[in-house]
Amino acid sequence: MSRATLVSAVAFVCLTASCGTQRVVPVPGTSSPAASPPTPGGSVSASPKIVTVLATAAVGRGPIGIASGFGSVWVVSSGSGAGAQPTVTRLAEASGAVQATIPVGVGAIQATTGFGFVWVSNAGDDTVSMIDPRTDTVAATVPVGDGPDGFAVTKSSVWVVCRGAADIEAIDPTARAISVRITVGAQPGFAVPAFGSIWVSNFAGSSISRVDPQAGSVVATVPTEVGPGDIVAFGRSLWVSDLGGGSVQRIDPRVAQVTATIRVGGTPGGLVPVAGSLWVDLRVGPSLVRVDTRTNTATGTFVAGNTRSTGVDRLLAFADEALWLPIFEQGIVVKVSIPS
Question: Distance between alpha carbon 1 and the CA centroid of its chain, in Å?
Answer without folding.
Answer: 15
